[in-house]
Amino acid sequence: MNTFQITFWFLSALAVFSSLMVITRKNPVYSVLFLIITFFAISGHYILMNAQFLAIVNIIVYAGAIMVLFLFVLMLMNLNKESEQQKNKYLLWSSGIAGGMLMIVLIAALDTPDPAIITKPGTGEIGLIKNLGTKLFTDYVVPFEISSILFLSAMVGAVVIGKKGD
Amino acid sequence: MTFSLLAITLDWALVLEKFLLILVVVSISLGFAMYSTYAERKVAGFLQDRLGPNRFGWFGLLQPVADAIKLFAKEDIIPNKANKVLFVLGPGLAMLAALMTSAVIPWGDTLTIGDRAVSLQIADINIGMLYVFAVVALGVYGVMIGGWSSNNKFSLLAAIRGASQNISYELAMGLSIIALVFVTGSLSLKDIVVSQQTIGWNFFLQPLGFLLFMICAFAECNRTPFDLPEAENELNFGYHQEYSSMKLGFYLFAEYINMFISSVIMSTLYFGGYDILPFVDETKWGLDPNVLTLLGFGALMIKTVFFVFFFMWVRWTIPRFRYDQLMNLGWKKLIPLALINMLITAAVVLYLQNGWPK
């Protein structure tokens, strides 16, 4: 085993273990904390694939901002075991089926292409910030700008909802 | 030099080199933070016309040791209703996030020991600045987890204040860094320092950016005038109210390490890092490269000490903001200013690169 393989297996085990903990913990605060660990493990995988920018943005956006807001809400609501709502049985089934279908799609997507391409580690250069920036602002400039307009509309929507009370 | 042990192939010399470097950097950070607590009280004494600690050791120089012994010897209390795992995890996370940034800081140029060139930087990654930003974003977890797990409403209020303050000021900080990246053209901290060695310190190109960055650094470190998470007249003692013994020590210590690290980052980004003098080519002095590297490290430390002193100077001079003033400043003053700074910088950089559009 070389360093790459050790890191890969460690990160994979960590990601699977912590994502299992996310859905099995009773206390939602623990779930959020394990989700943060999952994000770190996934960022480690990105680094193994030489996608440094994606790795660090994953941490900044998800672990640094979105999960903080999740924690915020959970801590303010002060969820206890007594106040936990009885879950709807149909919701449980539908979410199980939806998740299972997503898994089938992912496995199918991984099955068709040449596995040698997927498992070739640390060779791609596209994930480095310079190449990614050049690609985004030349070949993919229209989708990029459209997605930024999407973000702008989400921001405007949030402000409108926030101003409703006044 | 590679040989295998248990079928694991590693470059052991590199591992040893990096391990020693990490050990040295962490020890320097901790030692510096330890004496910052002493310096803080001496500076406070100086500004308020008193003596400060002067009992233990020569000029009170052993005071931090006495404090450490006191904190270790105290009873470690975990409240009955606290969430025990998270209560212990909180101070650890605060300390971890405080120390993690030091990995990407270029502490100096390369030292040549024997025939091996040792770079005084633990990891030169090409996204160094984003890494710093990510660690700053993670710093809020120590405060939030500690405050919530104490099961005390004052701690919780303080933790939520701290988290919202950090998130608000991260935005302006990020925008001021973007303007800096326009100027240097790289996210690697090493490249930022190297570019400053030739074109002069970034402070002369980005004075407004530096001011914004510094204000945000104050807010991220929870230092006065932004120390609302520990506003003792409103929240008793803040998010670490239930903590005692060395767990409290970790929280207080993490604040000083944060202060040290953000001073180093400010010197690195805007004041040339280990560059000794602006607009001067030090290699023409005819000194041994190793001596020059050590002098550069000394220069970085002098800049850092000045900024740490500045942190303390501000703390004992300016009163605390009210919460609405804090949010007004962050969202309505700093972010628009940072955006304007970014746009002007971008326009100037584009003009210098491509000339006036035809």
TrEMBL record, chain A:
What Pfam families does the entry give? Oxidored_q3
Family (UniProt): Belongs to the complex I subunit 6 family.
What is the protein's major site of localization? membrane
Q: Which domain of life is it from?
A: Bacteria
- Transmembrane stretches in the record are 6-23, 30-48, 54-78, 90-110, 140-161
Q: How does it sit in the membrane?
A: Multi-pass membrane protein
* Alphabetized UniProt keyword annotations: Cell membrane, Membrane, NAD, Quinone, Transmembrane, Transmembrane helix
The record's annotation in Gene3D superfamilies points to: NADH-ubiquinone/plastoquinone oxidoreductase chain 6, subunit NuoJ (1.20.120.1200)
Q: What does this protein do?
A: NDH-1 shuttles electrons from NADH, via FMN and iron-sulfur (Fe-S) centers, to quinones in the respiratory chain. Couples the redox reaction to proton translocation (for every two electrons transferred, four hydrogen ions are translocated across the cytoplasmic membrane), and thus conserves the redox energy in a proton gradient.
Q: Where in the cell is it found?
A: Cell membrane
- The identity of this protein, by name, is NADH-quinone oxidoreductase subunit J
Q: Provide the leader sequence positions.
A: none
Write down the chemical reaction(s) this protein catalyses. Answer: a quinone + NADH + 5 H(+)(in) = a quinol + NAD(+) + 4 H(+)(out)
Molecular function (GO) terms for this protein are:
NADH dehydrogenase (ubiquinone) activity; quinone binding
Reported EC number(s) for this entry are: 7.1.1.-
Task: Give the UniProt entry's GO cellular component terms.
Answer: plasma membrane
